[in-house]
Amino acid sequence: MTLKDEDGQPPVQRQGTSAESADSAEGGEEVYDVVFVGSGGGLVGAYVAASRGLRTLVLEKTDRVGGTVAYSGGGVWFPGSAPLRRAGIDDDTASARAYLRGIVADPSRERLQDAYLKAGPQLIDELEQNEWFQSFVYGPVPDYFASRPGGTTEGRTIFPSDLPAERLGTRAELVRDSLYTERWWDAEPGQNLGGGRALIGRALGAFLDTGNGTLKLNTALQSLVVEDGKVVGVDAVSEGNSVRFRARRGVILAAGGFERDRELREKHQPAAHGGQWSNGAPGNTGDALKAGIAIGADTDLLDEAWYVPGLVQPDGLPFFHTGTRGGIWVNGDGERFVNETRPYDQAGHEIARLHTSTGVRHAPCYWILDQRQIDRDSFGGAPGQPVQEEWFTSGALRKAETLEEVAKLVDVPVEALRQTIERYNRFALSGVDEDFHRGESAWDQMFHYTIGFPAGPNYPMQPTPDWPNSLLMPLDTPPYYVATVALSDIGTKGGLKTDEQARVLRPDGSAIPGLYASGNTAAPMSGRVYPGAGTPIGSSMVFAYLAVLDLLSASA
């Protein structure tokens, strides 16, 4: 059935029935110029295609658009872009190029990096010409390796402005909720869309308003259609019905990673958790990756993920943890092992590395706090609020009167734990973390405030200068509290190998005609590192954009 909004907005199809904007072909096939698989950051690319007059189809496996992007803060890492200049940030792509070269240190990705840096500002300039995308704003989130050559403490991340729900009309209901809302809250009708939901809502409105865009929900990719060596469409399943969609110009795979596929994770990722503890969207089971592999596509970095620490919640599942203001994390030996406020991807990778290489349990590890910390920052809620009882009744937060009790709770040697805490307390008194330098980097220093991420004009912060280093408050005021920090992720990172036009490559380096990939469906230009807030979403947008430009030029 085709749904038409009561306010006269363009159609959205919940099932895979014939679209008004498609041409019919023999056998009931539908024919489009471009078929996009996935509706996260690639939805921006779909708008670019539709705005150029291409009949564009977006297939979404679930009942709502946005994928993991809708869970995010919506930031995109675009060095040298106009929103940075408007904010008075002196930045250019040359310094960003030096930064990427240094931290990625992989010549095979340099052409991808150059394409990303060149296209990012161009894409933002184009988007901001459309009223749906006006306007992006700068948010001061430091580069994650800000001290490296070319890095900046000011950061290069921009964010979409909040989107009033009434502007989208009934289409607002099609945008996936934030992860927090999806897990714990009933969304209130008419609320403004913020963060990643604002980015997706804006892209959806712009895409459908072109008059050339069709969105099909509840429609899952099964395989790619190949004729004479060229990808010419996709076979999909919608509500149990097999359907074929032909693409005159090309197919763009932008369906996220394979974080929710246990078999693939266990095959490629020794530190993986099978997907059940991922913060990725539930539909991300690697369908696009598998379809590409089935027709001979090359892959890269399948052992990688955007690993993050995950604070286990009362529902038993972890939630993406951005940074720690107090207390310590200990491993199975009762020892600290990382700067607990380190950028999340780096902290997550350190958990994964140590867990698989040392023989000591690091996944999960345990977060130990005391009453002084709880009094200052609370737990699981805003500072000053009491800890909600469900944290205790569920066992997600446990209380102990002595360190001996803490050691029993987490099954670590009590003397090792005592020595770890005594050493940490000496650092707290001096204000210098001699082991892991917590509180010294530009990223860490955001968490000296009551609200740490994302920082910026929309997130007012108040300093808490109660100790020489407010991220190193002594751990010496019983009772003690113990929470669990699991290895989680915000998606897998490896995928199909692509070139700088986002064309999917075979193992011999040749491009598969008619097939493109972006976002977490493709192996990233940033390799094994995370340069700055918004790199994954930025990559999804940029390479979908470049794919559209290439398929247009190829058929010119």
What does this structure look like?
By secondary structure, the protein is of the alpha+beta class. The chain has 16 helices and 22 strands. The protein has helices spanning 42-51, 82-86, 93-104, 110-127, 165-168, 179-184, 195-209, 262-268, 287-294, 344-357, 371-377, 389-393, 403-410, 414-430, 442-446, 535-554; strands spanning 2-3, 12-13, 23-24, 30-37, 56-59, 76-77, 136-138, 157-160, 213-216, 219-227, 230-238, 241-253, 299-300, 305-312, 318-320, 328-330, 365-370, 397-400, 480-492, 495-496, 503-505, 511-517. The strands form four sheets. Strands 1, 2, 3, 4, 5, 9, 10, 11, 12, 21 and 22 form an eleven-stranded mixed β-sheet that branches. Strands 14, 15, 16, 17, 18 and 19 form a six-stranded antiparallel β-sheet that branches. A three-stranded antiparallel β-sheet has the order 6-8-7. The two termini are 35 Å apart.
Alpha carbon gyration radius? 24 Å
Q: Structural class per helix/strand content?
A: alpha+beta
- Biggest sheet record: 11 strands, mixed
- Tell me the β content: 15-25%
Helix proportion: 25-40%
Quantity of strands, as a count: 22
Overall pLDDT, averaged?
A: 91
- Top CATH class of the largest domain: Alpha Beta
| CATH architecture classification of the largest domain | 3-Layer(bba) Sandwich
By CATH, the topology of the largest domain is FAD/NAD(P)-binding domain
**Count the helices. How many?**
16
Provide the domain count: 3
N/C terminus separation: 35 Å
Uncertain stretches: 1-10, 14-21, 450-463
- Judging from the principal axes of the Cα atoms, what is the shape? globular
What would CATH call the homologous superfamily of the largest domain? FAD/NAD(P)-binding domain
